[in-house]
Structures are given as structure tokens and as C-alpha cells.
């Protein structure tokens, strides 16, 4: 698991004050994640800065105007390292915000083809439309199951935190395989490959489903906290800008 440093440790390493640490966080030179009320910084990213290695700043796109990508990606990766389930964040339109953490065997095969990527994108758009509550079960085009939780900021739906890539242990296995065969025909994937991947996908009992169902909501709460804090920070900046214009 990745090691993280505290704000004080970063201050000591760079011999800077706390405000400068936050400025570096804001302009993308530092990557961090907020855990509770405290910021934590990936040690390897800090070491890159210390060694003088160039840090690639994140590309700003429509999703990044709402989601601070490096922060939410870290939350998602931590979720996956603890839960051992694949995870991804999509925005309110179903566009993928983060890189998929620990994609499962079937997901990897689908994303390796152009048609498979189109199918995944269609599934994400459908899920974004359907997502209404905290704990919700979704099915993708290939028949795989995911639990999702709506992400809100200022009481407005901004996206969905998805976790899973599993089957229900009560569903007919032959029906699952037939859906995969149809997907294979559309995507041009070798049928034996997809069936080998199928054998590696977990079939969750009701108890396992219940345990997993609440976990995306906890991750969504962490993301929401960052979005709301960012929104409040931007409002304060606008207020300051407005005041300075009047001087």
C-alpha cells in the first residue's frame, strides 16, 4: 500500500510554511487527499519534487472543473486497495472522470477493443441516468453487477461512485454466459478468452452483497467533502476578487 506524509512532514522536508503547502496543492505541484480533517500526501510524489523531477500537471477538462482529479483518484485507489473491488467515478452525464482502479478480467477485455469501449461508455451513461440514491445495484451491458452511490455537491448530483464487477450467486450461470457470448460477437473478442475471464469473476452471496453495497457510499462521502470544500473555497476567492475591484 502506498505511503502518505502529513502536512507537517511535507513542511519539514521542503522547509516551507503550511500556506505554501496548500498553494502547491492548489496549483497541482503536490498531490494529496483529505482523510477526515487532515491532508495526506503520497510519499513518492513528494520525493519526485524533492529530486527535482518534473511533475506533470493534470489536464483540465470539463470534469476537472468539478472534480479535483488527483484527489478523487487517490480516494478511489485507496478504496480499491482496501475492498479489492474494481472502482470508477463517472460524472452526471456518464463520462468517466477517473482511471478505473483494478479493472476486472472481463472489463479489461472489453476495454481492449473499440466496440467494447463504446459498450462500456453506453453502460456508464445509462447508470448516470438511473442513479438516484446512495446504495443502488446496476447492471452493465455485459451483465456484470456494480454497486453505486450518487455523489452530490451543494445538493446537486455531480456523478456516481461505482464499485464491483461481480455476479449474483442466485443468477443462472448459463444466462450470464449467453449475454457474454452476445457481447463477444459484437466486440470481436475470442470466446474462449471471455469464458476464461468469466471464471475469475466473483459470484457474491447475499451477505457479501450487503457488505459491499454500503462501501461506495462511504467513498462518495469523502469525494463530496472535497467537492463542497472546493466550492466554498472558490466562493471565498470570488468574494475577495469582488472586494479588491471596489478598492
Count of beta strands: 8
Q: Could you tell me the radius of gyration in angstroms?
A: 20 Å
| Main sheet properties | 5 strands, mixed
CATH topology of the largest domain: Beta-Lactamase
Strand content: 15-25%
Description:
It is a single chain. With 247 residues, this protein is α+β, with helices and mostly antiparallel strands. It folds into 2 domains: 1-57, Arc Repressor Mutant, subunit A (Orthogonal Bundle); 63-226, 2-Layer Sandwich (Beta-Lactamase). It has 10 helices and 8 strands. The strands form 2 sheets. Strands 4, 5, 6, 7 and 8 form a 5-stranded mixed beta sheet that branches. The protein has a 3-stranded antiparallel beta sheet with strand order 1-3-2. A hairpin with a 2-residue loop joins strand 2 and strand 3. The longest helix has 32 residues, at 215-246. The radius of gyration is 20 Å and the shape is elongated. 31% of the residues are buried.
Quick tags:
247 residues; alpha+beta; Arc Repressor Mutant, subunit A; Beta-Lactamase; 2 domains; five-stranded mixed beta sheet; three-stranded antiparallel beta sheet; 10 helices; 8 strands; 51% helix; 18% strand; elongated
